[in-house]
């Protein structure tokens, strides 16, 4: 029994949202069946009256609905199609999807262009990404070739951009979608943002995190909505909790599963713990990670994943859902500091059932070399660290993380 007096109300609201989805889909399926039946009756009547046996494609092919989200058009070659063949809705719990998440990703920048155009930068660790149904990462730079950044002549400012052609490294590594809600997404202004989107689109990779953006992908018969939040005007706003909850509720009404990425928290080797309250860094409001994560789960999110601190933070169980507060840095050739906790990283893989229930998880331990390129770590140092941090920060709400990275709620 939950000690939270509002837990039952949240579960009831979530169940009602799911029931509404089922009713809408049944109504849609019934309407399609009626339309198909009408076509069949028309065809039979025409044949009975001596009409031609040849028919248009409409009467001989399945009805196909092409779906895109309202804010981000799919590349023409990767449009998701849904073929309606029955008026019934399958049991969501009978379906599942595995989602992989990694932290801060910089494929190249002025601080370092990796050898061989970056083609081998992620090669040692792509197994869990390619093995997932949907691989998600935080792209902490622009894909552009622009001369003017936000920094101007300031020596204490960092702006990251990689050539747009390097977008192809993302699908090669296994990524399906990238989060653009972070502090470096606007390093080269609106022109850099649009260039990044064009490059990802050309590579066949989706993105999320722009203001009010909901990006929906379909796998294994499930619609999975991805949202990204950060405390910046070019992103869905993490610090505006009420607005964030409303956007998540909208996503719940459109999809079977909702995954939320948050770019939040202070940075550096001393930022491994998740504090209570709002964090600041270099004078910026970096959000209240705990409050935000709990709020979006209350609104219906099924998984919350984090980035930003450049170090690993703990995992928390909240109302049966998993929160991963930070996965550290994933890749950043000569771009990120290394050593100690800054070199520890991971890949989080989570299996969710279609009703949102956690069905299993794995933490794959990585270690960054001196150039901030990732390698598998057989010592499982980051799995041990995340288990320790989870216990210290969340006590009884910490998931069980085995030494091999297996996660149980």
What is the topology?
Blueprint: H1 7-48, E1 63-67, E2 80-84, E3 96-106, H2 127-131, E4 134-139, E5 142-143, E6 161-162, H3 169-173, E7 177-179, H4 189-203, E8 206-208, E9 215-219, E10 222-230, E11 236-237, H5 241-254, E12 257-263, E13 280-281, E14 284-285, H6 289-298, E15 303-307, E16 315-318, E17 321-324, E18 329-332, E19 344-353, E20 358-368, E21 374-376, H7 381-394, E22 400-401, E23 406-408
Parallel strand pairs: 3-4, 3-18, 4-7, 5-6, 7-8, 10-11, 10-12, 12-15, 15-17
Antiparallel strand pairs: 1-2, 3-19, 9-10, 13-14, 16-17, 19-20, 20-21, 20-23, 22-23
Helix pairs in contact: 5-6
Q: What is the molecular shape?
A: globular
User: What fold name goes in the CATH topology slot of the largest domain?
Assistant: Purple Acid Phosphatase, chain A, domain 2
Report the helical percentage.
25-40%
Give the termini separation. Answer: 15 Å
The strand count comes to 23
CATH architecture of the largest domain: 4-Layer Sandwich
Query: Low-confidence runs (pLDDT<50, min 5 residues)?
Result: 41-89
What structural class do the secondary elements suggest?
alpha/beta
Radius of gyration: 23 Å
Report the mean per-residue pLDDT as an integer. 85
Query: What share of the residues does DSSP label as strand, in percent?
Result: 25-35%
Can you tell me the CATH superfamily of the largest domain? Metallo-dependent phosphatases
Q: Using the coordinates above, name the CATH class of the largest domain.
A: Alpha Beta
Largest sheet: 10 strands, mixed
Q: Can you write the helix and strand succession as a string?
A: HEEEHEEEHEHEEEEHEEEHEEEEEEEHEE
């Amino acid at each position: 029994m939950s000690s939270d007096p509002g837990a039952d109300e949240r579960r009831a609201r979530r169940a009602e949202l799911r029931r509404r989805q089922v009713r809408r889909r049944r109504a849609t399926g019934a309407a399609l069946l009626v339309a198909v039946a009408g076509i069949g009756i028309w065809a039979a009547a025409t044949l009975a009256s001596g009409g031609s046996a040849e028919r248009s494609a409409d009467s001989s092919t399945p009805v196909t609905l092409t779906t895109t989200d309202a804010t981000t058009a799919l590349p023409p070659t990767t449009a998701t199609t849904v073929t309606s063949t029955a008026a019934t809705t399958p049991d969501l719990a009978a379906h599942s999807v595995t989602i992989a998440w990694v932290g801060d990703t910089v494929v190249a920048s002025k601080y370092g262009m990796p050898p061989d155009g970056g083609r081998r930068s992620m090669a040692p660790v792509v197994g869990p990404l390619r093995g997932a149904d949907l691989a998600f990462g935080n792209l902490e730079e622009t894909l552009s070739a622009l001369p003017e950044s936000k920094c101007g002549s300031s020596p204490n400012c960092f702006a990251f951009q990689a050539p747009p052609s390097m977008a192809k490294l993302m699908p090669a590594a296994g990524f399906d979608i990238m989060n653009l809600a972070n502090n470096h997404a606007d390093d080269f202004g609106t022109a850099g943002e649009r260039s990044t989107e064009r490059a990802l689109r050309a590579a066949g990779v989706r993105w999320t995190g722009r203001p009010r953006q909901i990006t929906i992908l379909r796998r294994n018969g499930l619609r999975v909505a991805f949202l990204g939040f950060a405390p910046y005007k070019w992103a869905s706003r993490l610090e505006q909790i009420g607005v964030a909850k409303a956007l998540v509720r909208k996503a719940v009404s459109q999809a079977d599963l909702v995954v939320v990425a948050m770019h939040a928290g202070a940075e550096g080797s001393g930022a491994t713990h998740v504090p209570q309250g709002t964090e600041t860094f270099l004078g910026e409001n970096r959000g209240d990670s705990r409050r935000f994560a709990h709020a979006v789960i209350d609104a219906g999110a099924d998984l919350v994943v984090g980035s930003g601190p450049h170090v690993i933070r703990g995992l928390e169980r909240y109302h049966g859902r998993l929160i991963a507060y930070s996965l550290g840095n994933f890749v950043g050739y000569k771009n990120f500091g290394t050593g100690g906790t800054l070199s520890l990283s991971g890949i989080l893989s989570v299996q969710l059932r279609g009703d949102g229930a956690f069905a299993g998880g794995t933490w794959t331990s990585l270690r960054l070399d001196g150039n901030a390129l990732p390698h598998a770590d057989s010592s499982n140092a980051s799995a041990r660290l995340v288990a320790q941090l989870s216990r210290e920060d969340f006590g009884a709400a910490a998931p069980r993380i085995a030494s091999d990275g297996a996660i149980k709620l």
